[in-house]
Specification:
266 residues; alpha+beta; Metallo-beta-lactamase, Chain A; seven-stranded mixed beta sheet; 11% helix; globular; disordered N terminus
């Protein structure tokens, strides 16, 4: 998919909240606004105060030990050889990213939830996982679709949540520590401990701008957990990226169906 969009020259990260205009009609509760407001301006690296837990955002029970044990018994974590034989193998041929106009909106799938997004002149990685194996999962069967060495300079990273198949420390260590990172509420300290200096934490329906490209954090039907004691301590969600010319891209992360999808689409 390739579309054209303009790219401004500025490189700062800002957030703004639009002021209501006198006489502007207020939408009724049954009608969602066309676009959620952006957050108040906050400098990168500012430590925000978040609730200790986001359990109140859950819309379904979390899987317990019995459910996980059943997944393992049924081969849901990794199919057996017979099951793998029935899965079509995707063709894989290492190649550089397609050349696109600097103003293009283009996406290239690297694998799982990792995408290389070109939008508004920026190159953005979503949930970058370039490791062959991550904690608690089988090794990759098919290599990453884009070699790390073939990537251009990365202008920003967006993270949907903290599960290991979406937040991969070895991959993130490959990035310069001044790479702008857009992360869910409560996940900023994880990046700060790893010396990332330009981290923007957002709550649902908050947004920020980088070089004219808008990053909005939107709800998802999911949960977060990285250790035995941090269940739902950080938020989870998806991202809407909007180019300066208004063209948009939706990255859902992990999610089930939710009533907010219609609002995201607006």
């Amino acid at each position: 998919m390739t579309q054209q969009s303009e790219s401004p020259a500025t490189g700062t990260v800002t957030s703004t909240t639009p002021s209501p205009t006198p006489g502007t009609p207020v939408p009724s509760p049954s009608v969602a606004p066309p676009s959620p407001p952006l957050a108040e301006p906050r400098p990168l690296g500012e430590r925000r105060v978040w609730p200790r837990t986001f359990h109140d955002r859950l819309t379904a029970p979390l899987p317990g030990l019995k459910a996980i044990a059943r997944f393992a018994r049924e081969g849901a974590v990794r199919p057996g050889k017979e099951g793998l034989a029935d899965i079509a193998r995707l063709p894989y041929a290492p190649a550089p990213l397609p050349r696109v106009d600097a103003r293009a909106l283009a996406v290239t799938w690297a694998g799982h939830a990792s995408w290389v997004v070109r939008i508004g002149g920026l190159t953005v990685l979503t949930d970058p996982v370039w490791s062959r194996r991550i904690l608690g999962t089988p090794a990759r069967i098919t290599p990453v679709g884009v070699d790390w060495e073939a990537l251009p300079r990365i202008d920003a990273v967006v993270i949907s949540h903290n599960h290991y198949d979406h937040l991969d420390a070895p991959t993130l260590r490959r990035l310069p520590r001044d790479t702008p990172v857009f992360a869910p509420a409560g996940l900023g300290r994880w990046f700060q401990r790893r010396r990332f200096t330009r981290v923007t934490e957002l709550d649902w329906w908050e947004g920020a701008e980088l070089s004219g490209v808008r990053f909005d954090f939107v709800p998802a039907h999911h949960w977060s957990k990285r250790t035995l004691t941090d269940t739902c301590r950080s938020l989870w969600g998806g991202w809407v990226l909007t180019a300066p010319d208004g063209r948009r891209l939706y990255f859902a992360g992990d999610t089930g169906y939710g009533h907010w999808f219609s609002r995201i689409g607006r």
